[in-house]
């Protein structure tokens, strides 16, 4: 069961890329972030033609999340229960007994801003919800664009991306660590200890060509799924295509349960 996460940074622009990547990589389940499409514009029929059932929650211009799956998606949840938020950042469903939560975590703009405070409140609400989900669904994957680089290995320059910088600040990394302490494991780190492997590169300053990246797209697996995690990685190929998303897909492969 190959499960992937990709921030496509506008599905309207990147649909041809998604179509090509689905054909080439053949994932079983995909979580998409930043669709930037209202629901009536979501290409559900086209994705069904490609063999992927889909559920989605979108809005105009910003945010937007979706789950695609070769198999039925059950028990769909949109948004964080009990947390009022107009931004479409969360969608969850169950596929073949595995609960899958797809997150587009708040960016936060800059440390100390109102958006940063919102990010920390949002992460606290996600933590409490996932704690409850784990009680109901021990076989759980949490994936998405986390907008947090877990540690110094996950940034191109730790002197710049330090404890006072957005995406790497002490409070953000602490919130991610609290999530892991619920019984989640960074799928990538189960198989890759090296630094300098990234999932996001800024469009500016030739960021991709110079490999000035961050690893902020994560696939977290629960204690119950950890023994089934056979492989994981980041597929850089779509980042090389013309007019790419600034993110590359992150993935984890599970043995059949």
TrEMBL record:
GO molecular function: DNA binding; double-stranded DNA 3'-5' DNA exonuclease activity; endonuclease activity; metal ion binding
Residue ranges of every copy of the Endonuclease/exonuclease/phosphatase domain listed in the record: 4-247
Active site: 104, 145 (proton donor/acceptor), 247 (proton acceptor)
Residue ranges of coiled coil: none
Site positions for Important for catalytic activity: 217
Recorded superkingdom: Bacteria
GO aspect biological process, one term: DNA repair
Site (described: Interaction with DNA substrate): 247
Record keyword Hydrolase present: yes
Cofactor dependence: Mg(2+); Mn(2+)
InterPro entries tied to this protein: AP_endonuc_1, AP_endonuclease_F1_BS, Endo/exonu/phosph_ase_sf, Endo/exonuclease/phosphatase, ExoIII-like
PROSITE patterns per record: AP_NUCLEASE_F1_1 (PS00726), AP_NUCLEASE_F1_4 (PS51435)
Site feature (Transition state stabilizer) residues: 147
Keywords per UniProt: Hydrolase, Magnesium, Manganese, Metal-binding
Residues binding Mg(2+), per UniProt: 7, 34, 145, 147, 246-247
Co-factor note (free text): Probably binds two magnesium or manganese ions per subunit.
Family: Belongs to the DNA repair enzymes AP/ExoA family.
Name of the protein in its database record: Exodeoxyribonuclease III
Species of origin: Stenotrophomonas humi
């Amino acid at each position: 069961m190959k499960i992937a996460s990709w921030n496509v940074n506008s599905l309207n622009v990147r649909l041809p890329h998604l179509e090509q990547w689905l054909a080439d990589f053949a994932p079983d389940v995909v979580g998409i972030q930043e669709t930037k499409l209202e629901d009536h514009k979501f290409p559900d029929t086209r994705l069904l033609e490609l063999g992927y059932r889909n559920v989605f929650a979108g809005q105009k211009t910003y945010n937007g999340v979706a789950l695609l799956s070769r198999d039925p998606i059950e028990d769909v949840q949109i948004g964080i229960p009990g947390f009022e938020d107009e931004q479409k950042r969360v969608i969850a469903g169950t596929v073949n007994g595995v609960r899958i939560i797809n997150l587009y975590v708040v960016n936060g703009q800059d440390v100390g801003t109102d958006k940063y405070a919102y990010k920390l409140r949002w992460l606290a609400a996600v933590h409490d919800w996932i704690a409850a989900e784990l009680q109901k669904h021990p076989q759980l994957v949490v994936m998405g664009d986390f907008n947090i680089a877990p540690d110094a290995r996950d940034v191109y320059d730790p002197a710049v991306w330090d404890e006072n910088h957005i995406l790497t600040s002490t409070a953000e990394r602490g919130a991610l660590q609290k999530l892991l302490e619920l019984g989640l494991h960074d799928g990538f780190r189960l198989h890759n200890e090296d630094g300098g492997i990234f999932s996001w590169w800024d469009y500016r300053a030739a960021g991709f060509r110079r490999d000035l990246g961050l690893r902020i797209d994560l696939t977290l697996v629960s204690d119950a799924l950890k023994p089934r995690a056979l492989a994981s990685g980041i597929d850089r190929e779509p980042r090389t295509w013309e007019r790419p998303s600034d993110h590359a897909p992150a993935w984890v492969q599970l043995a059949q349960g």
